[in-house]
Each structure stands twice: as C-alpha cells, then as structure tokens.
Amino acid sequence: MTEPTVIPEVRMANQIAANFRHHPDAQAADEIAAHLRSFWTPWMLERLGAVVAAGGEGLDPLVVAAVDLLRSPAA
Amino acid sequence: MTTLREPDLGTPAAPGPECVALEVDGIAVEVPAGTSVMRAAAMAGVAVPKLCATDSLEAFGSCRLCLVEIDGRAGTPASCTTPVAAGMRVSTQTERVARLRRGVMELYISDHPLDCLTCPTNGDCELQDMAGTVGLRDVRYGYAGANHLDSPKDLSNPYFDFDPAKCIVCSRCVRACEEIQGTFALTIEGRGFASKVAPGPTDFLGSECVSCGACVQACPTSTLVERSVVRLGTPRRSVETTCAYCGVGCSFRAELAGDQVVRMVPAKSGGANEGHSCVKGRFAWGYATHRDRVMTPRVREAVGDPWREVSWEEAISHVATRMADIQARHGTQAIGAISSSRCTNEEVWVVQKMVRAAFGNNNVDTCARVCHSPTGFGLKSTFGTSAGTQDFKSVESADVILVIGANPTDAHPVFASRMKRRLRAGARLVVVDPRRIDLVRTPHVQADHHLQLRPGTNVAVLNAMAHVILTEGLADREFVSSRCEPEAFATWREFISSPAHSPEATEELTGVPSAELRAAARLYAAGPNSAIYYGLGVTEHSQGSTAVMCMANLAMLTGNLGRQGVGVNPLRGQNNVQGSCDMGSFPHELSGYRHISDASVRASFEADWGHPIEDRPGMRIPNMFDAALAGSFKGLFVQGEDIAQSDPNTAHVLSALGSLELLVVQDLFENETAKLAHVLLPGTSFLEKDGTFTNAERRINRVRPVMAPRVGKQEWEVVAEIATAMGYEMSYGSASEIMDEIARLTPTFAGVSFERLDRVGSLQWPCNEAAPDGTPVMHVDRFVRGLGRFVETPFVPTEERSSRRYPLLLTTGRILTQYNVGAQTRRTDNVVWHPADVLEIHPDDASDRGVADGDLVYLASRVGRTTLHAQISERMPRGVVYTTFHHPVSGTNVVTTEASDWATNCPEYKVTAVQVQLVPPAPLTPGRSALDELRAGDPVPVPVPVAGR
Ligand code: SF4
Ligand code: SF4
Ligand code: SF4
Ligand code: FES
Fold first, then answer.
1. Using CA atoms, how far apart are residues B60 and B334, in angstroms rounded to an integer?
2. Which is it for the CA torsion B415, B420, B421, B422, positive or negative?
C-alpha cells in the first residue's frame, strides 16, 4: 500500500482540466471553476486551495486559474 | 385449481385496435381482430378446455382438447388456433365436442401415473382439472400397455425437478424456452409415441438451460415443478411484490403457506417483466431466511473486540451519542452516510434526510457513485435529467439496437429476453464490447457488427460514429434544428467534424477497423428506430461521463429520441439504483436532481422539515475515504452496502474504514464492511420491507411485506430513531407516509402514493399534473431542459495504461447467477453455477505465461494482488483479461485502482493494468481470502515502480 505523495484532489483537478483543455484558456478556467463549485465539497476546495497557495506544485495551470476564479468575489 | 393461479385466456392478446363482434355459447362479445376463438370465449366468461395453450405463448394446436363447433363451418376446429370472424357463432359445449374431448383425455391419462393424491402439484395441475372438466370417468385402454411411467427423474437442477413420467408432450416448456426466454435449451426428441422432452443430450444442469423457470411456469402438469413445492406443498396465498436483485425490477407473486414462502412466480401484470423472470428473482430468495442473518443489534468499542448483543434502544442511543460526540470534537462535517440501492426509496429517503437534517451537512452519497453516477451527469448535461428515456417495452419497436458496455443476458436477463425476441424478429444489432458477450451470437441472433474495442476507448469509438454520421450527411437535420440548442450544436459540429475523430484516425487507438465502424454508424443512422442500451462498461471509466454524453449526442444527431423504439437507456445494476439517485442521495443534489445551491428548492425542504439545509455539496464516497485517511472524517453510517468488497482499491478502502472512530453498518449479514464496524444494525430482507423500488425504466413498483420484520423494526424506523436521538425529531406512522413526503417535495413524484400504486400497479415518473398516468417515454415534444444540448466530448485517455510490468488490461463484470458482492446469491444454490470468480484469458496470453485452463494464477496490479483460477476463453481479445467480483475470497477489488471518472469520481473498474502469473507452489495461505491477508497486514499488495508510467 502506498501513501500517495500528492493529495487526490490534485489528481482529480488535473483530470477535470484535461477534459476542458479543448477550450480557450479563459473559458476552460471558467468551466473548471463551475464544475468544482457544483460538485466539490468545501473541504476538498480548501485542500486544493492550499496547494495553489503553496505554489501549485503538480497542478495544471488551468486548475490554478480556476481556483483563483473561485477565490475572487465575483465567483 | 388453487385460487392463486393468474387468469389464463389461452392465447396472447391480439394487437389490433379494430374490433370484431361474435357470439360464444349465446354470449355476445367484441374482441380485437386477430384474437383466437379461445381467447374470445374466455373474454366472454367461457373457459374452453385446453392443455397445450396458455396466454404467454403463441397457439400451437397440438392437444385437440379445445375443439369447438362453429355455425356454418364443417368439423370441430381447435379454438386456440382459429381466429375470430365477424358474426361468428361458436358453441363450446356440444355433445360432439364433449365426446371428442373425453377421447383425447382418455389417451393422455392412459399414459400418466395415477398418483394424484401424492403428487406435488395435487390441486394445482391443469391435467387433473381438465380430466374433471371433460368428465373423464374411465380409461378403456387400461394402464398396462406401453407407457413412460418408469422414465427416471432429472433432479440435476437445484431448483426444479423434471419427472418425464408425467409429461404429456404439450411442448409448452419447449415453446416457453424459445419464445419467452430465447435460450432454445429444450427439444422434443423422437416422434409419435416415442416423443419426449429433453434438454439436449444431457441433464438440465449440464445443458444450455439458464434456469429462468419459464418452462416450469408453463408446464401444465407436475413434470416440471419447483423443488420447494415438492418439499413444502402447494402455496395457499400470494402477495405481489418486486424482485430485490437487478434494475429490471420484475414483479413477482410471492406464494406462501402461512408466512413461509413456497415459491416466487413472475407476475403477468408486471410492467417490467410481463410474466418472465430469471434464476435470481425466481429461485434465489433463500438468503432471506439464511442462518447467517444478523438478528440482534451488536456493538463493540474496537474492531478487535468481540461483539456485544444489545437492545435496539441501546444500539440507537449508542450511535446517536457517538455521532454527536464526534461532531462536537471534530466539527459538523466529520460524519456522513452512504445509502444503498438495495433499499427502498423510503429507506433511502430517510437516510439522506437524517444526514441533511440531523447531521446538518450534505455528506450523503449512494452506491450509485460507483456505478451510474456518470449517467446522472451525462444525461442531465444533455437532456436535463438523469433517466433512461424509454420503457422496456419500447425495444419491441426498435429496428437497430446498439448495446455498449452492457451484458444484458447475464446482468439484465429478463430485459435481454425481450431484446432477443425483437432481434429474432429481425432487428439489427451492434455490440460494442471488448469481450465477445453472449449476445454477439446466441440462438437465432447474430450481431451485425461487433466492435471489439480496447478497454477505455468508448469515447473515441462513439465520437468516430458521430463523425461518420455527420460528415456523411446522415444526420436528422430537422430534429437537430427544431429540438436542440443551435449554438451548442454549431460548436459541437466543428469539434466532431475534425479529421482527428474519423474512424481511420482512431483505428489504431481503439482497435476497431474503420470500415466496420463506418458500417455500424451507417446502420445506426439508418434506423429508422435506433435504440442505445448501455451499462457499466460505459460508466465505470475515467471518461464515463463523457461517454454518456457521446451517446446522448448520437441520439440527438439522428433524431432517435421522444418516441417508441429509440432512446438512450442505462441498464441499471442494482434494483433501486434509479430510485436511490432520484431520492437525493447524492451530496450535491436534493430529490429529483435539483442542485443543492438552488435556494428555492432548499426553501421547500426547509419549510417541510423545519431545519436549515447546507447550500454547498457534501462529500462523495471516495472523498469520505480520503478525508478519513486525512483525519478529518470520523463517523460513517453505511446502509446495506458492502463497500469493503465492492469499492475499488481494497487496501485504500480498508485503511480508510479502519481510521474511523465510528463505523455503523446496517445489513442482513456480517459482510466484509461489517467486519470493520463498531455497530452492526440488523437489516430487513425484501420479503419484510414495505415500500417502493424504482427500476431502470423509472417504473415505481411496490415492495410488499410477506412477513413482519424478523428483526423487529423496519430499516426506516431505525434511521428515524437515530435522527430523533440526535435531536432532530423524525417519525412516520408507515412507509406510505414517507412516500407522501417524497411526493410533496419532489415535482416528478407529485402524483405518486401507495394508494395509487396499489390501484394501478406501477407508475413511471415523471408522474404529476402534466403526466397524471406517468411517462413511459421521455422528451417527447421537448427535452426536460427545453432544447437538447450537444456537448463536446474530447477523448482524454485514462492514465491507467498497460506497461512492461503490467502488460494486460483487466476489465470486470457480472454473471447471470450471482449478484453484486454475492452476499445474497452466495447464500443460495446459485453457487452450483458459479462457485468462484475465475479469470478469463485469451489462449495466447495464457500460453505465453504457461497457464493452462483451471490453473491458479496471480492477478497483480500496481495496488494489490490476488489469486484466481484461469479460464481460457476465446471471448477475450488478446491483451485483455476479465473477472467478476462476486466472491470475497478472490477479492477482485484488491487489484482495482483509485482511478475514476473525471466528473463524478465513479471508479474505473473497467480498466486496470495487470500482470498474470502462474502461482508457484505456495499460494496465498489456504483458507484465507485476499481480504483476510490485507486485514492481517500481510504484504500482499506489492507496490512496485511501474516502468513507462
Ligand atoms: S414437461 Fe410439461 S410443458 Fe413440457 S411437454 Fe411435458 S407436460 Fe408439457
Ligand atoms: S428454465 Fe428457462 S432456460 Fe431452462 S429450460 Fe426452462 S425455459 Fe429454458
Ligand atoms: S431480471 Fe432482475 S429483477 Fe428480474 S428476476 Fe432477474 S434479477 Fe430479478
Ligand atoms: S389447447 Fe388448442 S389444441 Fe391444445
């Protein structure tokens, strides 16, 4: 049994990003943010947010952009 | 005749609307054109004697017992094979036909044992009835001549006996096996006096027979009879209820003596099954009274401690106190619950209500997470709601049937029989599956195309089909322009027309020859009625949700929605998958698929429940496991699910469950999950439940108790009492009050109540003011979301790929006689057919590894290893192996990984990179399961760095 070195949220978020990558970056980030808002529980968003805050290691840049959108008051 | 027998009008109903008037024994009657004289007589209240006819089978005309006289016609025609004509005058009771009938009966009885008094079906035998009806008093031939009275019995099938001495060679069994079941296992061998029924050159168990019971039900004598009737005697009363196994949702009459079930007989009135059944529902119900059932609540402090049996009061207050205590120490979000698709709508409803109102969070998920959650996401995104578009009957109008990632003859057998009937009548078939499933070639059915794709490439194949249809100009432009969002279609059109999606471009990736794929796409587009049926082979992938949207795109593109014979139809695994999803079991949705962020929906619940509802999604099952391992999730209530066996990556699940402070399991048996629990609450079997199940065609069926709950409480009572003990008052006088609450709060259920269901039999939601009698076919004039929405479906390959170390791909599935984790079916005689999970492997892959049929092999992935017996099988393509997950001993999910659908976290059971190796002399400790080894902390899963990943 291996303890994952990256938290599962990173893997899942990157996978979501891969499914919106066919769109222009800004639109993809919007769509990823909307998906996360609809389906992710706040605990997971916090953990993902913490990875972004720590420099976003291992995260798809689209995810980083989406997390920024979720943080902005307009989101 | 027992009063239990359902009325039998002798021949099937004629379809036509046109009516014909005639007279039978002076009684005027009007019937549809094409009706038989026998059926018309029955409709006029006149029972014509019969033996070879029954209304579930086409008329055969062999016994000559149903002779009648018709004014103006010579002779005495058989009423079962003679169609009615306008103005016909029929006499069923003349001296002449009476004499002829007595002669016929005399011949039958002269070759039939006269042991009526000791015969198992004494009082429930049509031959006995008919002898009485025709007034047979004597047999002039004596009984000494040549006869079949010494023919040996065939007792090989565990559920029914075959006693050929009693056979009258009416062929009803043979015809049932052909017409109803479609297996063609039985034949009449020999001719004339020497003719006899036989299951081929072998006994029943060794034959093609799949033990559906159709022949037993059709047999008018005691020749084919349920062993339970032989043992317990004929039943005395019956209760109509619903099968608790698969998502077909067959209606049954539980036939009882006292409160002992004698047999389960499929109900002709059942909307889903119309009188048919499979081996599970028909025969495998013995687990309900199995000695392994947990009968008393049990509690323990730590998992290693012995169980302490306690009263219900103590168990309930223990759960409530501990859950509240965890929340006090770790926060509101630290607890949650998982509801079960094996439970009724009412039972599931109270669990999500307990979570939302008593726990005060949205941490509720259901086992559909691991099967059909992508269906919810995909169909909601495109059509507006999560539901199959058709009723089962619709398949009778399909011209082209596309089956993808489903194995209906094993997993949805009664629906498969309907489908095969349509295929035998000429519908065309496309099968998309890595494995050559039975449907590809079965008696009188041959798939036009079998697209044997590589596991994990459904999206690429479906995109290629859409590409072909669009670029070859085969789309239904009128449907697309009138029924779908134009902007979304324009974007999608551009996406899908890209040459990257052509079958030629994707051929190497998918393994499907481009010419074959083009031909299949053209066939689907040509219809005129094309229907898609799919299963977990679509959803349980990292692109499961995308694939569901691909199918929705295909159906919209070709206008195959909104009428009989078409549609996109998920075949649901467990009996109440549809229902448990409908009931708001997902952490982001309230009942009827309404998002938790919708303030007006929340407000209606808050007003009814008198409790605020969280506006953010809760945790899904895999998230709960992750949070448990991270230390922030501490208490879990599990209703009737064996997540330790059914969920992927067992090692991960076991450590997550092991890190909980409180694991409460409500189940019939001490299953693998319960072995890690702190509280075990006894559950009720379907024979004790009062409620409803909703099947894959959205049909809400009643589940009626045939006995009081053996454990003293209904499951919903227990849940309501836990909620109340936690401070949120929840109480209902009956299950029907729960349904009233569901109807009050769920617009698609507005017109549903137990009273209504008892009156009309079943209802398909939406059932409300707009559709008072329910909705067999959805999206007729408009989609639930208004205009249908095409969604772009990029193919994002799974990260799970074969490698040098794990060169094979494992895919998993089910077989006919076992159900899910097998907790029920393993406790029945069904183990005769499937005593263990086996690993199907292509002959070349086997010989590369020195593996012979039956050898014990290791199956290893990067997360774990188990042992199984190999079965060499030409059904498998090279490079792909297959197994089932019905037995904890093999613990298939020890090897499946945490990979999941991008949108819903539905696990990717269908693709795991594995290696297969012959087991050297010392295998896993004999007598210990893979799960035991994991639990004991043995280093079974060997994590190895994977080359090339
Ligand atoms: S076994 Fe029963 S149904 Fe079959 S031919 Fe004999 S009597 Fe008829
Ligand atoms: S049980 Fe079903 S499959 Fe078997 S012989 Fe009878 S009808 Fe055919
Ligand atoms: S097809 Fe499904 S619902 Fe019907 S009897 Fe079999 S298991 Fe039960
Ligand atoms: S019932 Fe008509 S011929 Fe047998």
1. 66
2. positive
Q: Are B861 and B810 within 8 A, CB to CB?
A: yes
| Tokens 């949700």 sit on residue | B545
B51 lines ligand 4 (CB under 6 A): yes
Within 10 Å of residue B833's Cβ, how many Cβ atoms? 16
Q: Looking at residue B940, what is its pLDDT?
A: 39
**What is the C-alpha separation between B407 and B416, in angstroms, rounded?**
9
Tell the burial category of B874 from Cβ atoms under 10 Å away from its Cβ (0-12, 13-18, 19+): exposed
Return the bridge partners of B867, or none. B858
Write the pLDDT tens digit of every residue in B262-301: 999 999 999 999 999 999 899 988 888 888 888 999 999 9
Residue nearest to atom 1 of ligand 4 (CA): B50
Q: Is residue B893 within 8 angstroms of chain A, CB to CB?
A: no
Q: Which of A1, A22, A41 sits opposite B941 (nearest CB)?
A: A1
Q: Is B61 in the pocket of ligand 4 (CB under 6 A)?
A: yes
Q: For B519-544, how does the pLDDT look when each residue is reduced to its tens digit (9 = 90+)?
A: 999 999 999 999 999 988 888 888 89
Q: What percent of chain B has pLDDT over 90?
A: 62
Which domains does chain B show, CATH number per domain?
19-133 (3.10.20.740), 298-303+310-371+577-764 (3.40.50.740), 373-570 (3.40.228.10), 808-896+919-937 (2.40.40.20)
For residue B528, whether the previous peptide bond is cis, meaning omega lies within 30 degrees of 0, is yes
Q: Whose CA is nearest to atom 3 of ligand 2?
A: B209
**Contact B686/B241 with Cβ under 8 angstroms?**
yes
CA of B180 to the centre of ligand 3 (A): 14
Q: Is B648 in the pocket of ligand 3 (CB under 6 A)?
A: no
B424–chain A nearest CA distance, Å: 41
* pLDDT for the residue B938: 44
Question: Is residue B250 within 8 Å of B273, Cβ to Cβ?
Answer: yes
Q: Tell me what pLDDT residue B943 has.
A: 32
Nearest chain B residue to A10 by CA: give it: B902
Question: Cβ of A71 under 8 Å from any chain B Cβ?
Answer: no
B697, B390 contact by CB (below 8 A): yes
Contact B619, A41 (CB under 8 A): yes
* Interatomic CA distance for residues B940 and B937, integer angstroms: 8
Question: What pTM was estimated for this model as a whole?
Answer: 0.89
Measure B579 CA to ligand 3 centroid, in angstroms. Answer: 16
The whole-angstrom separation of Cα B447 and Cα B470 is 24
Rounded CA separation B339/B324 (Å)? 20
Tokens standing for residue B552: 């929705």
Measured distance CA(B40)–CA(B36) in Å, rounded: 6
Per-residue burial over B599-622, b = 16 or more CB atoms within 10 Å of its CB, e = otherwise:
eebbebbeeebebebbebbbbbbb
C-beta atoms surrounding B189 within 10 Å: 12
Residue of B nearest to A18 (CA): B796
Helices (H), chain A: 8-18, 25-39, 42-53, 61-71
Residue showing tokens 């159709």: B214
Mean of the per-residue pLDDT values of chain B: 89
Task: For residue B936, give the DSSP letter.
Answer: T
Q: In this complex, how many residue pairs, one in chain A and one in chain B, have their CB atoms less than 8 Å apart?
A: 66
Interchain CB contact of B658 with A (< 8 Å): no
